[in-house]
Amino acid sequence: MSERATLRRLYRAIPEMSCKPGCQDCCGPVPLSPAEARRLGVDGVTTAGSDSLTCRFARKEGGCSVYAQRPLLCRLFAIGPAALACPHGCQAKHPLSELKAHAIRAEYVALSPNAGPDQMILDAAGISAASNVLADDPLAALLRSRR
Predict the structure, then answer these.
(1) Phi first, then psi: what are they for 93, rounded to 5°?
(2) How many domains does the chain fold into?
(3) How far lies 71's CA from each of 22, 68, 89, 142, in Å?
(4) What are phi and psi of 53, to 5 degrees?
(5) Host domain of residue 40
(6) What is the pTM of this model?
(7) pLDDT-based confidence at residue 134 (cuts at 50, 70, 90)
């Protein structure tokens, strides 16, 4: 399956959620897979803006200029684990389980080995290397074995 097709499948696995209009409180630079970078016209591996602490797609008036096409890690905010909780309490009607969220992140990391160091992706996804979450996840182990 192509990277693009895999991303579409992963995007569909993430419940829809609408942010508070104009909000950017969770916005910041996130890693991109090569397919996401191409689709968004980004030359690089993150959405970092000129100051590296903001997202290049954050609008001055608020909100996101690529919300409908936002990267996978942006889609994961407020749909599952507390590590990705919205500070305003926005959430999906049917949040992901911790296991499902970790499986999606693990597959994304396996899909995007060139999107930057794995730890950068894990940090952006809210997974600590010390938590050893991926080491104990059978799906992640399988995906790692396919690299």
Answers:
(1) -65, -35
(2) 1
(3) 18, 9, 21, 24
(4) -105, -10
(5) 3-145
(6) 0.70
(7) very low
